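@channel sequence for tomorrow's demo:
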Amino acid sequence: MFKFFATLLLIASLMLQALPALADEGAKLFTANCAACHAGGGNRVVAAKTLKQAALEKYGMNTVEAISYQVKKGKNAMPAFGKKLSDEQINLVANYVLEQAANNWGKA
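structure tokens (generated this afternoon):
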């Protein structure tokens, strides 16, 4: 029984150590693929549809699943990234967007 809990503790510790690296990867992917139109959580094409918390909620884009679907498939002026990015990479971008929106894209 002790080995089981020790293993769980080790796995949890490794996962927590990996979180900053995953966040960094999400930021890099966003910068490389999304920032041209969505720098700072904005939207250079459709000004009302930003990546800010209120807009994400208003347009039903406030979940990893919703953001991932749109990134993968595209919509209107937004190109599809499903052939350029893996599902894992798209998931990292979606999580990064939600994290930044929750933090008001770094603005106080």
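heads up for whoever presents: The two ends are 47 Å apart (CA to CA).
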